[in-house]
Known about the structure:
Largest interface: A-B, 54 and 45 residues
Distance between the termini of chain B: 27 Å
Shape of chain C: globular
Number of helices of chain B: 11
Strand content of chain B: under 5%
Structural class of chain C: alpha/beta
Oligomer: heterotrimer
Helix content of chain C: 25-40%
Amino acid sequence: MMHALRLLLGRVTGIAFAILAIATINFVLVHSAPGDPALVIAGQSGATDAKFIEQVRADYGLDRPYLVQLGTYLGKVVQLDLGYSYRQRRAVSELILERLGPTLLLTLSAFVLSLVGGVLFGALAGRRHGSWSDLTISMMALLFYATPVFWLGLMLVLVFSIQLEWLPAFGYSNMRSGTFGTFDQAVDVARHLVLPAVTLSAIYMAVYTRLMRSSLIEVQHEDHVRTARAKGLTEAAILRHHMLRNAAVPVITFAGLQAGALIGGAVVVETVFAWPGLGRLTFEAVTARDYPVLLGLFLVTSILVIAVNLLTDLLHRLIDPRVVTR
Amino acid sequence: MRDLVRTFFRRPAGIVGLVLLGLVCLMAALAPVLYPASPWEMTGVPFSRPGENGMLLGADTLGRDVASGVVHGARVSLLIGIASALAASCIGVLLGCIAGYAGGLVDMAIVRFTELFQTIPTFVLAILLVAILTPSLATIILAIALVSWPPLARLTRAQVMSIMRREFVQAARCQGQSTLSIVTRHVLPNAISPIIVAGSLTVAAAILIEAALSFMGLGDPNFMSWGYMIGAGRTVIRQAWWMSVFPGLAILLTVVAINLVGEALNDALNPRISRA
Amino acid sequence: MTEPLLTIENLILALPQGADRPHAVDDVSLSVAANEIVCLVGESGSGKSMIAHTILGLLPAKVRVESGAVRFGGRDLLALPAAEMRALRGSDIAMIFQEPQTALNPLKRVGAQVAEAIRTHDPAAGREATSLRVRELFEQVGLPDPRTLVSAYPFQLSGGQRQRVMIAMALANNPSLLIADEPTTALDVTTQRQILDLIRSLQAARGMGVLFITHDIGVVADIADRVVVLRRGRVVEQGPARTVLNQPREDYTRQLLDAVPGRGTLRRAKEDAEPLLEIRGLQKTFITRQGFFSPPRRVVAAEALDLRLHRGETLAVVGESGSGKSTLARMVLRLIEADDGDILFAGQSVRAMGREALRQFRRCAQIVFQDPYASLDPRRKVGESISFGPMAHGVPRAEAERLARQWLERVGLTSQAADRFPHEFSGGQRQRICIARALALEPSLLIADEAVSALDVSVQAQILALLAELKEEMNLSMLFITHDLRVAREIADTIVVMRAGKIVEQNGAEALFAAPRSDYARSLLAAVPGKDFFERASARPAASMPASGAQSG
């Protein structure tokens, strides 16, 4: 019990440090940009108004020494104050909170889909190493892995929305809240979720398929599989009880490492599908050069990555009892 | 060396990859010959379908030749891909070597630093960097390099540490060989193979990141790139599907080619005991 | 004469193209009766493991059965359909393997893995009944506290405990034949003794037939009723153990018996010579951090070590795994830095040496490592690996290369070997190269860190003889690290016994073997395989020692 508590404490401290470090990087970025940081923060909205710039300077204490500024900024971060978007005339944290839900929905569904699909297809391919199904799955995995995610999204829209008209192309929901029941609303959102989630998951599913496949091929030659065979187990039982879980362990570890890439992919997918999440907000902020929003997004998405890492770490510990300490 | 080449060509995947890659490079090299005019010039009829009006792959909303864009875009993608992968490799290999060789506090500091970078969503950081530093070829290459080095550092560190622990390195130390000569004679030649493979795959990843950046409008405005073309074609996808399809296929083929070459290289450089 | 339990008739196993010989096993016939232990003994590459795997159909895909039959219970196992073979595995015939570390599924609890063996052959068994049976089995194999141990994972158990779990799993369905593929080779010598005794008592209690694969003649002498000697896939000799061991008919068998080290006369310590190497109060603790808040793990590798090696003497440091003996060797050369204490070489403190002095010291003290495969740079020609040493000390390249070739010939290889790569040589040949590399610098102290442990017994004998020759010639002093008391007995003047970082006993070889003072040393001596047999055998005139050998080893 004490041991687990110690571990938890250690993790939490590590995470706190990481977040503070990332916030510091934010700070460094703003101050390393060419030109006046006040201009960077004000973005393109207030570049010409001298009085406005002065106000920004005062707000952010840009005349004070660096360390004081850093302290102020970190203090603000801890209080969940991520700054103000002069462009959209709202607090950054408000903007982000509004868009957090759809991004979580998209990212989590894509994560689960890619992991489950990857393990399944990878197991199929690895089990029948060298056969036609293995070759087909491997080739498809390579193709999807090499496909730019935004292009895949557009192609799926082309086929499924425009040509076949099966699924909606853009947005989150066609219904206005209040008019329809929650179940209908949920179904509607689900229909809109299909293409973006499939697009985002396809790429990573390809990665996990390849990894699971090679992992399974390796596991087949391990000693404990031979022991299981010597006990008289059927090949199916050996696969289920002695190979799948063992082969999946490195895939899960890797999935955790890919969390950052997944969230980055969500940015692009949301842009393609006009999905009203953080990614779309990023696109809008980039186009408008709204730096406070961008920096806030940077911090929040990093926290998301840490959260996903924690989740996969938990999953890893559940499956592999050997993982005791870092 | 001869064995390497022979093993490389034993698998059809390597040959296919090399051929495809060769075609792309050829295309990039011959761009000014094939399409001497700038791809930005509006030489044709807007919204031409592929094959119409002398446009092999059609024209975009402003009458620009899609084929010309694809061919010229190859130069941008390859340039950025190779340059950023090289830069990322330099940073990653250097940091990895230092961490692996020095050990102790230096190692721990570098490991924590690398972990931090890997916690940050790579694409978001790239966007941020390019946006803040204003988009240009140089800033894009810098941004991609800065987000791509962590896996290379991890790999190099792991390799260096594992080789340093091997007895033949210990024996070399006992023979009295200097640190520099141990690293150059014994450590690097044994460590380099997976790093080369990882480096080549980084080129593919870099090309994908560049395409995504251009798609989001953060590409160098002076150069036509594949990602930009797809982005431009996004809103008119119903009317002009060819604007998005062909540049995307170009990206797909290039990245597949690089991956095939990388995998064949892996087989050639790290022969493992063949199984079953 | 009852029908034997298992009969192997004229078995031929074919290897794939490109292997060093066409057949792994060539026309082998042997049998195992009920209630007897048959030992299948041979060196590496003899095919003994392949034969064991063939019985239960566990051969790797590349190896084919070309012809022959394996009869058990009136059926030919080689012609058995898959479902019937599966019914046999783990029930009538059970098998235990060499590496307990990897033979168990790391992600499943050990109790569950044993229960799986039961339920596979008795799907109707209830949960309660199975758990009870598992606990019974754990008791039978001598595992402590079965109730809690069933929920343990393999990584939480020691090597010996894991092997006991494997045995419990094998015996779960009361097999009539047990195949044991080198089950004790990866274990410490005291654990090995325990497991051997366990297998013997279980065999007697259940009246099983046991086919025991091993490379160690000592083990054969301890437990075998009958012996089959294999060499390069062929049966050299077989018969009752007593006969084969005491009156071997074939030269190869005799060679194997003679190669077992440690049967010659014991030496006494050289007291008069001055100490070349002195170790005083050496201290080393390995600390591994475990995250922010957990206390770090401390492993004491060396505690207050005191040691003296005289000029021209061979001192053997004997201990089991984790005793700290290898750490000691590395600390002497400062490949690992000690925490505290003194190391004096010819009166000078090694720990206080600066960079240049250390380099010069390392010229006078060289080391040969255990693993001949990891000890040479795979990307460098063998001659280069040797010549880099003298070159680092100022010898011009041409001269260094000439030296390298000279040394290669001295250790029994040809001078052309200098142009070849490590992977072209066998384990024993590589070890010779490593010796050449070490001695090319003409050291006065040679440290051998388990230098012969990874070698076949006949090759081991050759390397030991080579080392003895070279030691005489160059008046070397040797610090020999080993876990095998027999090797220590063969070569040492003084023996130091280590355990958990401490020196338990230190004495001249003769004195130690005649009258060990500590309990631990006594238990080590008692655990030596084949001790009784070889003591009786050495009472007779000893056979001549093998020559240091040339190409073959």
